[in-house]
Amino acid sequence: MGVDTVKLLMWSFIASECLLFGTLIASFLAYFNKGIGPHAHEVYDIPYTSVSAFVLLLSSLTMVLALAAAQANDQRQLRIWLVATAMLGMVFVGGQFFEFTTFHDHHNVWISTNQFGSTFFLLTGFHGAHVTIGVVWLLSLWMFSLRRGIPPSRSMHVEIAGLYWHFVDVVWIVIFTVVYLVPVALHA
Amino acid sequence: MAGHELQGHTSDHTAVAAGHNHPTAKRYIEIAVILAIITAVEVFVLYLPELGVEAFRPFLVPIFAVLSVAKFAMVVGWYMHLKFDDPFFLRIFGFALLIAFTVATAFIALFHGMYFA
């Protein structure tokens, strides 16, 4: 049984990313309720963040549909789902930008304010940067598919981008629970 | 890597993909609906104590942990195709997760140990 080298490389990269995000999440858990406020439960808007979580989950669906279209050589569907995934990613990043500015403008929380601010903005900022890179990657694939098309024999390009995108999604699943829900639940 | 033969990325991936027996679009949508429902349940459970259901309060974090792991496993298994792909990828990912979890747990324990000292 053969193992594709590009896929192996992508999974190795994802494995290293697990360590990066694991460390950032551990730092958040160690510091989020230490020092001066405001703290997590005072600034979070859980319903708003839940919508962001739904958007990112939906983008994972559109991503697998893009891969299915690529494997079925349905170029039109492939382009539609690639653009849909990129747009959902942009909505997520836009929502994160709005959340950051709300924290800064209305709650006076920024990366240098306190331990919560430092660890929160570092973690979610890194995640947002990953989503942004994913959006650029997806739009590049979309441009490529417009110019030359992506035949089934090259569908691995879409699958690799999909692996990255889904990883960003699973990281958000953990962040949504550990960084958003748990601090609020502990204070409830 | 024993027992695994590396193949270049220029090979025909159609056969590889077909061999994985990837799920249908309908199944992908079903998974998405389940993920959305679990997320909605998470948010609903968070507000149960505020709605007067105090009995849930001690169980909030364990409930979130279980639901989060379920969502994580579904995305990794179905959308990232670990359920269908070569088990070697699962071992790579599982090993990384194990190390990340161990390091994170040790770090938090160490940090809180400093406070208890």
Task: List its traits.
heterodimer; A: 188 residues; mainly alpha; Four Helix Bundle (Hemerythrin (Met), subunit A); 6 helices; 82% helix; elongated; B: 117 residues; 3% strand; disordered N terminus
What is the compact description of this entry?
The complex is a heterodimer of chains A (188) and B (117). Chain A is mainly alpha-helical and 188 residues long.
Describe this protein's structure:
The complex is a heterodimer of chains A (188) and B (117). Chain A has 188 residues and is mainly α. Chain A has one domain: Cytochrome c oxidase, subunit III, four-helix bundle (Four Helix Bundle (Hemerythrin (Met), subunit A)). Helix content of chain A is 82%, strand content 2%. Chain A has helices spanning 5-31, 40-43, 46-71, 75-107, 115-147, 156-187; one strand spanning 2-4. Chain B is 68% helix and 3% strand. Chain B has 117 residues and is an all-alpha fold. Chain B has two domains: 22-84; 86-117. In chain B, helix 2 (25-46) packs antiparallel against helix 3. The interface between A and B is large, with 61 and 62 residues.
Which consecutive residue ranges of chain A, at least 5 long each, have pLDDT under 50?
Answer: none
**How many angstroms does the end-to-end distance of chain B come to?**
45 Å
Largest sheet of chain B: none
Tell me the overall shape of chain A. elongated
Number of helices of chain A: 6
CA gyration radius of chain A, whole angstroms? 18 Å
What is the CATH class of chain A? Mainly Alpha
- Report the structural category of chain A: mainly alpha
CATH homology superfamily name of chain A = Cytochrome c oxidase, subunit III, four-helix bundle
